[in-house]
Amino acid sequence: MQAEANAPAAAPDALLPRPFRVVATWRETRDTMTFELEPLDGDGLPFAAGQFTMLQVFGAGEVPISISGDPGRPDRLVHTIRDVGGVTRALCEAREGDVLGVRGSYGRGWGVSEGAGGDIVIVAGGIGLAPLRPAVLETVAARHRFRRVHLLYGARTEEDLLFRADLDAWSGLGVEVAVTVDRAATTWTGRVGLVTELLRDAPFDAARTLALVCGPELMMRYVAAELISLGVAADRVRLSIERNMRCGVGLCGHCQLREYLLCVDGPVLPLDAVRSHLAVREL
Ligand SMILES: Cc1cc2nc3c(=O)[nH]c(=O)nc-3n(C[C@H](O)[C@H](O)[C@H](O)COP(=O)(O)OP(=O)(O)OC[C@H]3O[C@@H](n4cnc5c(N)ncnc54)[C@H](O)[C@@H]3O)c2cc1C
Ligand code: FES
């Protein structure tokens, strides 16, 4: 991956959180909230699609959270958070006017522009659509630079679908959106099944495709294997790999995966780098 996809080098004060005020919140699903934050010091937070911040609730702790907002709007920091434990619960309870600590932006992003001239295939599972939303927004903003743009999204149930208004809007903006759920209620009239099945039906030119994948590791493993079997080169399949993180800037070693420190070398890595970890073999 090229430098364009990377984070700016960590500044000397990279461990100091900056205060950001919550200016809007909305519920995505029963356990997931989206937050819009603005910097109290007035300086925006430039980021590349796929990067994350270390988000701190004073008195509760600090966790890595991907940026789910628009890379073209560094003045508005957007995060989408699922309540799974102590810190994420405290974050999900934040209200308009609350002040959170923010460090970052950190890590390597998707490198969306490296797909220019060809097809972009974005495959998301569950909360994995949050780190991919900026990538979708980037392709929409420069739609003429890409041939076909596919968004293939799978969730457990209809109630677990994130960004539902966006999914409709993106369909009208040149993104071929396909959605599937694992379990359907009687109200669901769309597809039921695995996101890998959507891949088989999506017309794209494998030789000219950049694929961006985020979701549970098991899902990413099957999606990566399917992309390889369809002819996408392993270095053109990119995955976001999450591990526990503490410093976020390559100092503590908490996020190590083999030779990689995922906070600086990732979270986005090409399939070549993680193939053995995910046990993806060529079919
Ligand atoms: C680069 C990166 C980006 C992330 N982006 C998002 C995001 O956009 N939205 C979001 O909701 N979450 C995201 N996460 C996951 C989030 O950081 C964890 O859910 C959070 O750290 C859990 O902390 P907690 O104190 O709430 O829960 P804890 O009490 O610490 O843990 C609760 C449960 O979550 C598991 N867990 C802890 N840390 C992680 C982790 N890093 N990844 C997966 N499971 C974990 C624990 O094993 C445990 O089962 C991201 C993680 C990374 C590394
Ligand atoms: S989180 Fe400390 S080295 Fe990655």
Radius of gyration: 18 Å
In quaternary terms, these chains amount to single chain
Question: Total strand count, please?
Answer: 15
Sum up the overall morphology in one term: globular
Ligand names: flavin-adenine dinucleotide, FE2/S2 (inorganic) cluster
Extract low-pLDDT stretches: 1-9
Question: Roughly how many Å apart are the termini?
Answer: 24 Å
Largest sheet: 7 strands, mixed
The CATH homologous superfamily of the largest domain corresponds to Nucleotide-binding domain of ferredoxin-NADP reductase (FNR) module
CATH topology of the largest domain, by name, is Rossmann fold
**Total count of helical runs of at least 4 residues:** 7
Q: H/E element string?
A: EEEEEHEEHEHEEHEHEEEHEH
Q: For this structure, what is the CATH class of the largest domain?
A: Alpha Beta
Give the overall pLDDT as a whole number. 92
Total number of distinct structural domains: 2
Describe the structure.
The chain is of the alpha/beta class. The protein folds into 2 domains: 18-106, Elongation Factor Tu (Ef-tu), domain 3 (Beta Barrel); 112-240, Nucleotide-binding domain of ferredoxin-NADP reductase (FNR) module (Rossmann fold, 3-Layer(aba) Sandwich), CATH 3.40.50.80. Helices cover 21% and strands 30% of the residues. The protein is built from 7 helices and 15 strands. The strands form 3 sheets. It has a 7-stranded mixed sheet, with helices on both faces. Strands 4-3-6-1-2-5 form a 6-stranded antiparallel sheet. It has a two-stranded antiparallel ribbon with strand order 13-14. Strand 7, helix 2 (129-141) and strand 8 form a beta-alpha-beta unit. The protein is globular, with a radius of gyration of 18 Å. The model is unreliable at 1-9 (pLDDT under 50). The site of flavin-adenine dinucleotide has 22 residues, from strand 4, strand 5, helix 1 and helix 2.
